[in-house]
Each structure stands twice: as structure tokens, then as C-alpha cells.
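Human: Here is a favour to ask of a fellow structure person. Comparing notes only helps if you start from a blank page. I am asking you to supply a protein in sequence and C-alpha cell form. Write it directly below this note and I will take it from there.

Assistant:
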Amino acid sequence: MAQALPKEYYEELEKIQAVDFVIAELILYLDTHPNDSNAIRQYNQFAQYSRSLKQQFEAKFGPLQQGSPNYNENDWAWQSCPWPWQV
């Protein structure tokens, strides 16, 4: 049985998902409005914010996906973190 995760884990993961949803919507919009400089600016801001949130999350809780940095040099963190289907 999976170990219970702290409330903060779910809160931070939900924030990442919300920001990534905004990014997906902006991408769809920009596909049809490629010269909208305001949307491009928003996309860049949210993309940077998403990277920052993910770095903070991974430093606390471990990798979100394959290819994420392994912040623990003494242990392979991918195997010790909850996997997507466990949360």
C-alpha cells in the first residue's frame, strides 16, 4: 500500500497542473493567432512559471517525469517517489 502523501504535495501538484492547462490553452490560441504579442508574452511568462514550480516540486518530492534531474545524489529518486497512478 502506498504511503500517504502530505497535503502540500497535492496542492503543489494541482498548481502545476493548472499552470500547464493555461499553457496548453495558450498554445491552441497561438496556433490560430501567431502574431498576438500579448498572448506570446503570456505564454512565455507561464512557461517560465511552470518550470519554476516543477523545479521546486521536484526538489521537495522527487521527479515528476523521466528526464527530471535527480536531486538526491545518494539514491535513485525515481523509484522512491510516488508514480502518477499512485496519487
Remarks:
- The chain has one domain: 1-61.
- Residues 1-61 form one domain.
